[in-house]
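#lab-general

N.A. 3:47 PM
ok so I finally got the sequence cleaned up, no stray characters, all 139 residues accounted for. can someone with queue access submit it? mine expired

B.Y. 3:52 PM
send it over

N.A. 3:53 PM
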Amino acid sequence: MPIQQSDVLYTAVATAENGRDGRVATDDGRLDVVVNPPQAMGGSGAGTNPEQLFAAGYSACFQGALGVVAREVGADLTGATVTAKVGLGKNGDGFGIIVEISADIPKVDRGAALSLVEKAHEVCPYSKATRGNIIVTLV
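B.Y. 4:20 PM
back already:
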């Protein structure tokens, strides 16, 4: 169920100049980066790119969701990491993305870890936003 404007607790604001070959900065100045297409797409690769920024945000958000579901069952996330791989490729409408989320949870057995990852995928705001729009694989 979508949230309503009255339910918003925080709004991030970022402005891009020159799209994929320019600069992106947040209104508070905490993020200010050069963006360039990756070399694999014919760019200079000198800066970051939107897919890396999305991967960074998704992995951080997903790990936060993982923490929420782990606390509910008393699972130990000490040393846990979440990695998001965001692929960009051509599709029928031009371009699209695909995501792989992998979690390493060393203090939890594989079955329990998979259950935690699946539950985190249900509550993570990024997962909710992309559900039904792109392929997200959990590892």
